[in-house]
Amino acid sequence: MRAARLLALVFPLMVLGVPVSAVAEPAALNDWHCRPSAEQPRPVVLVHGIADGVGAWRDLAPRLAERGRCVFALEYGKDPRTFGQVNGFAPLAQSAAEIAAFAEQVRERTGAARVDLVGHSEGGLLSLVVSRELGAEKVGTAVLLAPPTHGTTLGGLVTAVDEAGLRPAAEYVLRANVCPACADMVRGSRFITELTAPPIAAPGVRYTILASAHDQVSSPGGMVSFIEEPGVVNLLAENRWPDGGFAHGTLPQDPRVLTWVTDLLTR
């Protein structure tokens, strides 16, 4: 049991090893007086990754706003069972419900029929979940940055835990008081198994997924993120930008990704 407890602590520490955007809410976010235009009729809802916050969008939000988009974001997933009530550590079903409710609030207060979603890491996975729950009547486009769609192996750590027979004990510790979301996001979890029973994508929603081949957080890179279904565009970052150098935690601030997402949502 001691080994399982250690492994249960290593899981979230690996996730927390990526940069966290602990900065104030960007000025371009959450202007509840913003009204979508005829040219840009859908507000954009930005969904940060695990242990991150609205500061992750400090570069993307102003760019989208300058192009005429109404831009909104929330912080989600605090859970009283977890140490420090870290953003995104709550069970994924709880976080998905928070995000769906926020998206509905955005629709109602802006008068928009549909929203677009942009999610990073855990936020990408949850954007997929929310798009399925709300459907094409309420979601137009979902841009997912390195989501662990099929369940991450955390660079092989999950495989090692399984081979050692420690998954049940490690999962118990994670769910009890460390990081329920971490248990939900790994390969083979009940949440992932149910999510990836085809069809995965919501009919009528346009999906674009960007992933890096060398990602060790959402791993194996690319394969764990992509959805091979109609209506989904899968893009390996290294194929579009051969110079590479992508880091999982800073994808939302990468200048190449910023330009690409902005153009995708405002063309």
From TrEMBL:
SUPFAM superfamilies: alpha/beta-Hydrolases. Residues 1-24 form the signal peptide. InterPro entries: AB_hydrolase_1, AB_hydrolase_fold. Residues 43-150 form the AB hydrolase-1 domain. The keyword Kinase does not apply. Keywords: Aminopeptidase, Hydrolase, Protease, Signal. Pfam families: Abhydrolase_1. The keyword Translocase does not apply. GO terms for molecular function: aminopeptidase activity. PANTHER family: SLL1969 PROTEIN (PTHR37946). This is Serine aminopeptidase S33 family.
